[in-house]
Amino acid sequence: MRSAIYSRFGKPPEVLVLEEKALPEPAAGEVRIRMTMAAIHNHDLLTVSGQYGVKPDLPAVAGTEAAGIVDAVGEGVTHLKVGQRVAASGKGTWAEFYLAQAAAAVPLPDSISDEAGAQLISMPLSALTLLDFICVEKGSWIVQNAANGAVGKALAMFAKPRGINVVNLVRRNEAVNELTDLGIENVVSTSEQGWQERVQALTAGKPIQAAIDGVGGTASGELLSLLGENGLLVSFGLMSGQPMQLSASDVVFKQAVIKGFWLAKIAPTLTPEKMRSLIGEIVQAVAAGHVSLTVSEVFGLDDVARAAAAAAEPGRKGKVLIRP
């Protein structure tokens, strides 16, 4: 089978190559999936470059999430059948076939496309779990930057029916229209003069209880400055590539709390019942069209280097996907 492999860490377009590998056999509790569409996430690119929180043994097949058709089942798997359409995270999804834990594979209804199924779990689950993590009540105000990213868009969409008010910060004026076209409200471009006053006007002076930072650098301090007393600043990404730059006076005098969020650490602490509830909410919301999972480009597997380069470009309106 054809697989996107890297034998050293480095810039993804430079180190990713297409190679033939033996078809993997599912172990007990696993399924083999014939990939129909795979997502390129930021953490995939960071993993290939060697900058993520975990480093796989090399050589490794890239990719962590995809949609496809169950091709074979391992011992003990009874709830999934060969030929069934599923979305599943796994190792090495940028390949014609990949293995996944059967318990984590999500059956896909016909109303969810392969394009949406390929990105159904990681980012929406991060968004929902983040909403639980910050633990704010209905009617509260929160603020997030990188609001036009996959997690940001999903978080804004999931927050609305919960009655949580979100100020959505973007760095380009064009992104304001991109989000409003998706039905996302309270979008503010930080490229505009006086954007902080715009945020204050939106909240009508009510305190912002939590801020979600996916950028780092000076953007972290900007979020902290918007928080009310005893506010929470959550770091879950570092798009700027720069360390968080925070005002000590804001931390001290606001008695702010700063936490890190990594789904890989949070997910194992969730009960099976809670995980099923979250996944069920995601599937329902996407199937009903209440949450949109957008796509910017789709590349063939044999064009994986160019796909990785496209995924790293700023200003994308959706996920870059790979198909066989």
From TrEMBL:
GO MF assignments: NADPH binding; oxidoreductase activity, acting on NAD(P)H
Source superkingdom: Bacteria
Keyword annotations of the record: NADP, Oxidoreductase
Oxidoreductase among keywords: yes
Keyword NADP in annotation: yes
Enoyl reductase (ER) domain boundaries: 11-322
SMART domains: PKS_ER
Protein name: Alcohol dehydrogenase
Organism whose genome encodes this protein: Rhizobium deserti
